Amino acid sequence: MFTSLSNISLHLSGQLTNTQHQSDTCQCTLCRRQTGSLFFTAHTIPNSAFTFTSSESSPPNTDPPTLKIYKASQWGDRAFCSTCGSFLYWKSTDPYDGTLGLAVGTIDPLYLFGEGAEDGSKGFGLALAGGGGYHAWCGNEIPGVTDGIGILGCDGRGNRAVKN
Length: 164
Ligand SMILES: [Zn+2]
Hints:
Structural class: mainly beta
CATH topology: Metal Binding Protein, Guanine Nucleotide Exchange Factor, Chain A
CATH architecture: Beta Complex
Bound molecules: zinc ion
Distance between the termini: 35 Å
CATH class: Mainly Beta
Strand content: 25-35%
Helix content: 10-25%
Order of helices and strands: EEEHEEEEEEHHEE
Number of strands: 11
Number of helices: 3
């Protein structure tokens, strides 16, 4: 189990390692409003690498009933838990994309920073939120606030998209 909200769990197949530095950020208005933050941090994962489950029964190979997906724009769907309200992911409507951007803040503390790890692990926070991926809507930066933050690619990590 990787993300365990009150009523939705995310299960990943395989193991994450610190070599998977594919975290992205977005400063678009939709991401700001959805997350309630100045930018959204996502970890890109292939659709084939995970399943969402719930304690509530649902038919096989279907999403849990509390996982709500809505069309936020012509190019993306967004999902949240209807029990606790947590934002879960952004996903392109392009069927050939094959990935989704999992909201890093929903990842369990054990995996994010090692809380409760019996082996002393520090978690995968650097890999999951290290800012090595794609930085969208940097043209929407707030001068003096978000235009100099390393995780947003301002220190040369990842690829910045100043125009979207
Ligand atoms: Zn966005």
